[in-house]
Design brief:
This is Metal ABC transporter permease. This protein has 412 residues and is mostly helical. It folds into 3 domains: 276 residues, ABC transporter involved in vitamin B12 uptake, BtuC (Orthogonal Bundle), CATH 1.10.3470.10; 72 residues, Winged helix-like DNA-binding domain superfamily/Winged helix DNA-binding domain (Arc Repressor Mutant, subunit A, Orthogonal Bundle), CATH 1.10.10; 45 residues, no CATH class.
Amino acid sequence: MGWLIDLLPLSYTDAVVVIGAAILGLTSGVLGSFAVLRERSLVGDAIAHAALPGVCIAFLLTGAKDAGSLIVGAAFAGIAAAVLMVAIERTSRIRPDAAIGVVLSCFFSLGIVLLTYISSQNNANQAGLEKYLFGQAAGLLERDLVVMAALAGASLLFVAIGFRILKVALFDADFAGSLGLPVRVLDVAMTVLLVVAVVIGVRMVGAILMVAMLISPVVAARQLTHRLRTLLPLAGVIGAGIGIAGALLATGSELPTGPVVVVVGFCVALAAVLLSPGRGALWRARHVAAERRRAAFEGVLLEVETAMHAGPPPTVAELRLATGRPRAQLTRTLRRLERAGLLRRDGAEHRLRLTEAGAAAAHELEQRRDLWAAWLEHGASLELPDAREPDPRDVRASLGDDVADRLQELAT
């Protein structure tokens, strides 16, 4: 690991922190995906909190702050918490969220009690154990990176080898059981992977904040892809990027690394939720707004044509009274129709009249709506070569001229 530290143009401490944050982000992104996709994200939170008493018990047994023994203690405590949650859920009438809450609060309280007891023993070796609450990335050493990299490499190799089996058990446990796969063993394996991610990161970001590293990269990646084969490496890359960016920002501003990494992860996840193409909240809001403008555009166009056939061309006030549309929406839509060359205003009263292009557009729109109505009424009786659902806005383009002509014949 020394060669990698030497490659980075940073001081020894900063280079170790950056590499550790990258390992943590990569592992958390990949392994946290299984918890998020199983809708068991809070299990990771409970396991992270359960790591604290494991660290304390390992210290009491060994009397030293050896990274290896503390990690083993955290791992055993995490596995014990996971087993206890499953046992409470399956052998009682307690719901899963309540079981998680009980185990989380119990183990974390035990950890606080043990920390208080250790600090009262006046043991010089105990200094720094409380950093497992919020993490202490600056205390990482090269040997810690070796342990983290070994655990990360083993877990990622396991995921790569068992990807197909894990995928089946993840999305359809009943089908996996019908194939003879050991579903419960695979469920335990995915939980153990979660424990591995926790013990890798609890030293850096702490027991309280570790759950954010398990969720943030997956949330961001999930907004960008819908395939597990792409999601896992993408979540790992995003997690590594979050870790590196947070570590560099923290070292440059002399802020605690763990909280800064978590804040960066939150910002990345929030940006993905808001801005991701096709799924982002802002993209969807923009799409909905565009659909509403389109519907208003077409609706007002037809309403003007209907009013013209019923009597003299209407004024804006008469059209608003007849349609009940809000004044602001009607005004904006009429301006758009005018800019499109589909509408003009005549006379001193500025009566609304469709242009030749507007009349043609209204006629085409009526035909499309009539075709959609004919599809809803007679579509089930048609024999199509494949199972297709037409676009309500353009049945002819989506089903073809032959099917559209048959629909028109059935409707007449």
